[in-house]
């Protein structure tokens, strides 16, 4: 009898949590104006197995796959909104992106070394700190329905810093593998091959799916479902083959956008589907963080956040005028790049397969991630509001 | 507030205002970019004048006063180049077209300026639906009486301008079957339509306008959304029925055509206008909006039905015989247009070829950038 109850509780845990997170998210958004995803994170963290333990650990299960698919959808939409041609018509955008990433990398690396971290751990920490969370960003931008230069720039800068983060991370992991195992082949397959195959798969989907949809006559109508299915499939394939779903989904979005003759009326957020999956995603991510680890890395984590934020604001703000916007909007763009969460965790989860448990080695990152998981979206939201780019609240 | 006195200006001088679309180059939807564009454009002297419009995804440019088509076109090209360069830096496409084919009006944001906020409060959703893009052409008049004479004499030619400039076939992602759907949004306003018939400025000023002001409905000429309205402080009449064309070349050509027509009319070459001319006015205007150059209009004096295309062709030929050489390029541009089809036809073709309304926006951006369209 008792075991039946436990099993029942385990079965119900996730649906109940999603329902609770949704209610808390709506309530907090309505009464405190907070971004919903921050509140999903709070619910996930509190109920997660390391804390209250109401949720069964889901690191390798279906929930992980669902979260991955949700993240894939966000990344696809994110890639789809990027106009690479802009980096050519306004070279300062590209310069800003590379500079702020490089400076963040350097500053975090120096900080980690100053705290006596091992060289490779410091490098990994630095490469992950470069990236802004595209998932948090997209959710906040869509929730606020914001549009303007801060919105456009934060999206484009994030696209570049994410790519740089994935690439540098995989290369460093390659070196790590080589150092620990001495196996050059495994090292290469862990980095270069993963990068190349993931990108290739994403590009193949980017060419093939629009072509298929056109044949089916879906391009001029609503292609949302077609693209959603393709993204979920792509994520499943890359997940199974231990490739990078992040890179593949992002490339899919990029290529689909730049290859098409027609742009498709893909709905924002993938409509209700995207909204639903993102609840699972943000709850899930927070459940993977344990209180002990956060506590252990709190000091360095906070310092890391401060340094990262300062560098980003200084770099983006400093180049604002020359790239065509006001200083104020430049600083706000830098601030809006605060979130750093989901992306990092999924990278780490993936690399558990490699036999390296980075999560334990990167305790400060766990702390920083938790803080930003909750606070990052709020910072982005306020920055967009201060920039006056939020849509007028819907009436009624 | 009484109407200001009509300030005489050099006859037949030209000025053009264009309302342009600001489009995200990422999504091709309208984007709230006018504050950022104005901020960036404010850093250097602008080759003309640029101001915000009622919603933040619109921008309005205007030229100086010109004596002829050539100078006007040259300035419009400089204005276009400045806009395109600024847009490139901000990931913003600038283009013509009377409507954006798939924007959702409810997404638009009213520009933060007291007059716009007042208008938005008064008109509600009509204000946001007014995210439509027109070309206004000013023609200088030596006196108020001349202005009213021209304004009413042009009644028969208003459909020409609607059909030639029409570039708004789609609204909210759907084909409206109209060539100029934009004008339907203008007609929704209570003070739209045509000016009351009088040929005397004194009568207009102390009669109609004074009485209207007394009712409290209007405060200035700005409150009228007429197809053609006098603008006493400029000393002009302003033709407002044109959709913003896809190219500045077409915009300049339309102004050249209006100038030629006004010259012809001021020579008193036609029977004087009459209140009864307006019996056929709304019907003719509908024909031009709906069918473009394929419409059929009724002549206001003879009640003869003529195809709009033939009527335009005959008028163009008539003007070409008597026009100064400076205007010839404008008229021959329009002759070509009549043969090849207007911008609405071109945009519909793009929809077919590229499979969606996004393709229309893409083509509109390319047309605006390039010199002339294929």
Q: Tell me about the biggest sheet of chain B?
A: 7 strands, antiparallel
Principal-axis shape of chain B equals globular
CATH class label of chain B = Alpha Beta
CATH topology of chain B: Creatine Kinase, Chain A, domain 2
The CATH class of chain A, by name, is: Mainly Alpha
CATH architectural group of chain B: 2-Layer Sandwich
- Termini of chain A, distance in Å? 50 Å
Please tally the helical runs of chain A, counting DSSP H or I stretches of 4 or more residues: 19
Low-confidence region ranges of chain A: none
Give the % helix of chain A.
over 70%
Radius of gyration of chain A (Å): 20 Å
Number of helices of chain B: 14
CATH fold type of chain A: Na+/H+ antiporter like fold
List the helices and strands of chain A in order.
HHHHHHHHHHHHHHHHHHH
Main sheet properties of chain A? none
The average pLDDT value of chain B, as a whole number, equals 91
Would you identify the CATH architecture of chain A? Up-down Bundle
Characterize the overall form of chain A: globular
């Amino acid at each position: 009898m008792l075991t039946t109850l436990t099993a029942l509780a385990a079965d119900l845990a996730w649906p109940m949590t999603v329902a609770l997170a949704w209610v808390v998210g709506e309530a907090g958004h309505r009464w405190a104006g907070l971004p919903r995803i921050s509140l999903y994170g709070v619910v996930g963290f509190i109920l997660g197995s390391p804390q209250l333990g109401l949720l069964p650990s889901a690191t390798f299960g279906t929930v992980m796959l669902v979260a991955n698919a949700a993240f894939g959808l966000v990344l696809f939409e994110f890639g789809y909104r990027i106009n690479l041609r802009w980096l050519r018509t306004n070279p300062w955008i590209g310069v800003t992106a590379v500079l702020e990433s490089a400076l963040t990398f350097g500053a975090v690396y120096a900080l980690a070394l100053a705290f006596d971290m091992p060289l490779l751990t410091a490098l990994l920490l630095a490469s992950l700190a470069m990236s802004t969370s595209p998932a948090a960003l997209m959710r906040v931008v869509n929730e606020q329905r914001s549009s303007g230069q801060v919105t456009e720039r934060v999206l484009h800068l994030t696209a570049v810093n994410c790519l740089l983060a994935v690439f540098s991370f995989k290369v460093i992991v390659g070196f790590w593998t080589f150092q620990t195992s001495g196996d050059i082949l495994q090292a290469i397959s862990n980095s270069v091959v993963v990068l190349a195959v993931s990108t290739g798969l994403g590009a193949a989907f980017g060419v093939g799916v629009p072509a298929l949809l056109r044949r089916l006559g879906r391009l001029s109508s609503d292609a949302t479902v077609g693209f959603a299915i393709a993204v979920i499939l792509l994520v499943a394939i890359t997940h199974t083959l231990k490739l990078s779903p992040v890179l593949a989904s992002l490339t899919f979005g990029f290529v689909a956008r730049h290859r098409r003759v027609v742009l498709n009326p893909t709905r924002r957020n993938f409509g209700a589907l995207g909204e639903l999956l993102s609840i699972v995603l943000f709850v899930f991510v927070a459940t993977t963080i344990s209180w002990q680890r956060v506590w252990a890395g709190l000091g360095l984590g906070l310092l890391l956040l401060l340094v990262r934020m300062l560098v980003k604001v200084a770099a983006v703000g400093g180049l604002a005028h020359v790239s065509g916007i006001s200083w104020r909007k430049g600083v706000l763009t830098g601030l809006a790049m605060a979130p750093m969460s989901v992306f990092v965790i999924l990278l780490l989860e993936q690399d558990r397969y490699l036999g390296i448990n980075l999560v334990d080695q990167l305790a400060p990152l766990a702390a920083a991630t938790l803080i930003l998981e909750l606070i990052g979206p709020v910072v982005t939201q306020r920055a967009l509001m201060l920039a006056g780019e939020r849509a007028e609240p819907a009436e009624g | 507030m009484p109407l200001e006195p009509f300030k005489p200006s050099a006859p037949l001088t030209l000025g053009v205002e264009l309302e342009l679309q600001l489009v995200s180059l990422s999504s091709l939807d309208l984007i709230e970019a006018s504050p950022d564009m104005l901020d960036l454009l404010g850093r250097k002297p602008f080759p003309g004048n640029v101001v915000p419009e009622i919603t933040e995804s619109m921008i309005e440019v205007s030229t100086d006063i010109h004596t002829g088509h050539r100078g006007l076109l040259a300035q419009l090209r400089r204005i276009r180049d400045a806009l395109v360069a600024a847009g490139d830096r901000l990931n913003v496409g600038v283009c013509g077209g009377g409507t954006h084919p798939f924007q959702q009006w409810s997404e638009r944001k009213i520009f933060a300026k007291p007059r716009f906020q007042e208008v938005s409060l008064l008109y509600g959703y009509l204000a946001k639906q007014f995210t439509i893009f027109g070309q206004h052409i000013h023609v200088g008049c030596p006196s108020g009486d001349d202005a009213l004479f021209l304004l009413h004499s042009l009644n028969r030619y208003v459909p020409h301008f609607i059909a030639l400039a029409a570039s708004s076939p789609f609204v909210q992602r759907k084909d409206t079957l109209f060539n100029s759907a934009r004008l339907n949004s203008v007609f929704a306003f209570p003070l739209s339509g045509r000016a009351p018939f009088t040929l005397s400025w004194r009568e207009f000023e102390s009669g109609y306008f004074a009485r209207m002001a007394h009712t409290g409905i209007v405060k200035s000429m700005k409150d009228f959304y007429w197809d053609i309205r006098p603008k006493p402080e400029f000393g002009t009449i302003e033709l407002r029925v044109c959709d913003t064309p896809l190219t500045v070349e077409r915009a300049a050509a339309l102004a050249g055509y209006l100038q030629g027509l006004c010259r012809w009319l001021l020579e008193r070459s036609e029977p004087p206008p009459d209140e009864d001319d307006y019996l056929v006015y709304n019907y003719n205007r509908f024909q031009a909006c709906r069918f473009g150059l394929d419409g059929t209009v009724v002549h206001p004096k003879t009640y003869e039905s003529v195809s709009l295309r033939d009527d335009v062709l005959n008028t163009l030929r008539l003007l070409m015989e008597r026009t100064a050489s400076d205007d010839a390029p404008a008229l021959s541009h329009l002759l070509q247009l009549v043969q090849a089809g207007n911008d609405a036809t071109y945009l519909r073709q793009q929809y077919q070829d590229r499979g969606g309304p996004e393709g229309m926006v893409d083509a509109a951006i390319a047309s605006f950038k390039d010199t002339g369209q294929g």
